[in-house]
Amino acid sequence: MKVLIVGGGGREHALAWKVAQSEYVEDLFVAPGNAGISQIAKVVDIQQNDIRALASFAEKNSVDLTIVGPEEPLANGIADYFAKRGLMLFGPSQESARIESSKVFAKEFMERFHIPTASFVVFDDPEQAIHFIEEHEFPIVIKTDGLAGGKGSIVAHNIEDARDAIVHMMIERTWGDAGKNVIIEEFLEGVEASVLAITDGENFTVLQPAQDYKRAFDNNEGPNTGGMGAVCPHPAVSDEVLKEITDYVLEPTISGLRYIGAPFKGILYAGIMMTKSGPKVLEFNCRFGDPETQAILPLLKSDLIEIILFALEGKVDEADVFWHDKKAVCVVMASGGYPKRYKKGYKILGLDEISGSPDSNCIIFHAGTARRGDTIITNGGRVLNVVGIGNDVKTASKNAYSCVDRIDFEKAFYRSDIAAEYV
Ligand code: AMP
Ligand code: GLY
User: Fold this and answer.
1) Using CA atoms, how far apart are residues 125 and 19, in angstroms rounded to an integer?
2) How far is CA 191 from CA 116, 172, 211, in A?
3) How far is the CA of 106 from the centre of ligand 2 (A)?
4) Which domains occur in the chain, in start order?
5) pLDDT beyond 70 at 357
6) Ligand 2 mutation pick, 99, 195, 290, max ligand atoms within 8 A of CB
7) Which residue has the higher pLDDT, 103 or 359?
8) Is pLDDT of 358 > 60?
9) If DSSP codes are grouped into helix, strand and coil, which group holds residue 214?
10) Among all ligands shown, which has an atom nearest to the Cα of 211?
11) The pTM is what?
12) What are the angstrom distances between the C-alpha of 16 and each of 12, 160, 301, 393?
């Protein structure tokens, strides 16, 4: 088979790494890819949102299957467009991707189908929103309706922060039309978990749960980022809790979307807060998580393409899904200044010595890198995802950090406490 992966970050490197090992795959393309991906696949110079050019490439190169990493092309209807042109793609339609692309849709959907989530109110008028928060206790959570690159949710601890958030979102329109409507919701306390399912719209198979570390600095301090690390399987999600999440969140979401005529075919990601009164949904994503995928896929023993082929036939429940009995810890090495301003173009040292073979105890996935001549340079906020594998979290963590120690680039920074609470 010829496979095309859309995207160019750490998640797509992990996907490409796994797909390249599939016995079904003879040719692998990634658009636009990055320097690390170019070592294991053919990178194609087409941007992830250029849906027409991606379809033309797939047509011209007889691509049998396209897999999409990021949410934007899905929210823009890449699955519908490929289907119209008779091209096979694994990912949700624009309509079902609304579970991520519109938080108002997702919240109203959860309310209708009794899926546990924080209580909420929707506003389209900033004055009414401000009036509401003036009457409310803190902390409180304010979210843009539309996509905002992971920056559209603010936990406000006082009236000033809440007012600022509403002004940015609704009046200044920092995220454009995404801020036309906002949700104000109850603050939930607990440990977060990312639970992903591969679904054909009716049946589904649940992947090993993971934990994402969203804050920039140690001790969960500093601003929210795209994710600074991950651990898989999630050490605090027991089999009972996973069953609860499956029965009360994943199952009703998949059957609810089918019921409203928007069957979800692809990767359904539930961001969960495990509260004292049970798991509650923080958000849904319509794709693999980043950086969770970098910790999940190295543990998957089965062939991912085979599972996807079962899903495309509407019988994903019949696919064999086996896991290595190991743990994975992913540490993100970022550029100094991230998630705010940072510089690109620094030479990365130490990569050559670390092997990326499937049975290595450390795998390096590239996120924001590029090639300059013979060297690899930094080319983004999150630069590398260093994944340690081990029989327990302590060993996995040790393997990750000993790899991190061998890599260097100017102004590199990373969290030193990924999975530390479980060691
Ligand atoms: P979201 O964009 O909805 O995934 O939110 C991003 C992050 O904000 C989550 O991963 C949580 O850390 C935090 N968050 C979102 N909603 C809530 C909530 N209702 N209570 C507490 N924290 C929240
Ligand atoms: N790690 C969070 C996300 O992928 O949205």
Assistant:
1) 46
2) 16, 33, 9
3) 16
4) 2-91 (3.40.50.20), 125-180 (3.30.1490.20), 191-318 (3.30.470.20), 327-422 (3.90.600.10)
5) no
6) 290
7) 103
8) no
9) coil
10) 2
11) 0.96
12) 6, 45, 15, 25
